[in-house]
UniProtKB/TrEMBL annotation:
Active-site feature positions: K176
Similarity remark: Belongs to the HIBADH-related family.
BP term (GO), one: L-valine catabolic process
EC number(s) reported in the record: 1.1.1.31
Protein name according to UniProt: 3-hydroxyisobutyrate dehydrogenase
Gene, per the UniProt record: mmsB
Amino acid sequence: MSEKIKIVFIGLGNMGAPMAANLVKKGFDVTVFDLNQEAVANLVAQGANQIDSLSELPENTQLVISMLPAGAHVRNVYLGEQDNGLFPKLASGSLVIDCSTIAATDARELAEAAAKHGIAFLDAPVSGGTAGAAAGTLSFIVGGSAEDFERAKPVLEAMGKNIFHAGSHGAGQVAKICNNMLLGILMAGTSEAIALGVKNGLDAKVLSDIMSKSSGGNWVLNVYNPYPGVMENAPAGRGYQNGFMAALMLKDLNLARSLAESCGSDTPMGEQALAQYNRFVETHEGQLDFSAIIDLYEPGLVK
């Protein structure tokens, strides 16, 4: 793919905005769309173009990337009602890369619908959080044909560091859902352990350092510590704002439950994490970062 390829980027939330910004920095021709006009203006200031409606697609658009909250949003963008979504508006031969985390069944349905219009479709959910999105070090977990994966790779490499081809359509979503189920378990368990230590007189930073270098070490301790004051750049250091929302973790854990039910897999730890995030979202703002779940174990950390 040439760097002059015309890209439309849909969804400028906490993840999408820095991803689109990295494409602009790497010299791609990027047009953005989001209902949040402030987010759009920020990208335009960095060199992107804008459209006010998805009916205003730039001529000769060759690639569409979307980063949206849930499957319903993705289906609405591409399928719409009575086939009035984006697929009929795109030229045959176009490529669509959806980076949202949605059900694998939705991804397969979208790929099938895209193929009817001669459009290639990849499900390419990401891992790495907002820091990874800003730094351009995300992991992309891609489902689709090997040929389309290779076609998309130069664009994905402008936004990420680790680009995985998980398998056919939907495989990217299955891998991402498994990853996020484990992440939810790790965050809840790590929060529980740190809170237990603090309540028994330990310093959260000292305890985190001990565990990170011991057998309990994990990504949460090393990169995304949930206790305020331990990691300045983690969401816990900024009031649990502008991170991966707890409501989205809850959504992903529900996707994991549905996936497990579809194949008869037993996921008791996933169910425990789901119960804890249900409890958190019922009693706190769902827009807080998912690491704010530590407030269940040491109330008062979330102001």
